[in-house]
């Protein structure tokens, strides 16, 4: 799964390069999740997960606090969670997750981003069957054997544990995310390089030259859309 982790690192590095966009997207996601349940991460597991993920992107505390305070207010603003699927050049596949208060606007903008950048929208299910929902947790300062021992003590059997560069990466079932992270925290591990619920492609494709440049332009166009929260794909963008 190493190449899949490389795609996550590439995507994270891209988002880190545009912090204002990252922060605004997290602010909206925190607001929506806090509105859906209690605005307290101790009683709202979905909110707790978003805050853990926000921490790995260094989202400032004041942005988080403002979003939670807004959720405590009397606003009747509502958002829909949407998923779009589509294709890029040379068999590339893309999943787009959005939060929006205007479904027609978002659908139109996503369709236009695909159409103007060499891609096309697909129907629901046309791409997602080639991806697996996966919890990914990364950390430094430990070996894969260390982590395996910690998880075995908690009777947790995950998909895979690998060492890559200076990190240990844990791949687990989505519903194991909180249990795995809590086991690590119980062992004194409180800092994570990644804490994601993501969609990993079952197989990657490689693009070269013009096709790769066009694909990257398409991904940038999608991620630049205000309503788009996350974009997943099956292209190995490692140089």
Automatic annotation (TrEMBL):
Pfam families: TACO1_YebC_N, Transcrip_reg. Residues 3-73 form the TACO1/YebC-like N-terminal domain. One of its GO terms (molecular function) is DNA binding. InterPro entries: Integrase-like_N (IPR017856), TACO1_YebC-like_2nd/3rd_dom (IPR048300), TACO1_YebC_N (IPR049083), Transcrip_reg_TACO1-like (IPR002876), Transcrip_reg_TACO1-like_dom3 (IPR026564), Transcrip_reg_TACO1_YeeN (IPR026562), YebC-like (IPR029072). GO terms for cellular component: cytosol. It is found in: Cytoplasm. Keywords: Cytoplasm, DNA-binding, Transcription, Transcription regulation. It comes from the Bacteria. Residues 79-235 form the TACO1/YebC-like second and third domain. One of its GO terms (biological process) is regulation of DNA-templated transcription. Belongs to the TACO1 family. YeeN subfamily. NCBIfam families: PRK00110.1 (NF001030), PRK12378.1 (NF009044), YebC/PmpR family DNA-binding transcriptional regulator (TIGR01033). This is Probable transcriptional regulatory protein F7732_14260. It comes from Bacillus mesophilum.
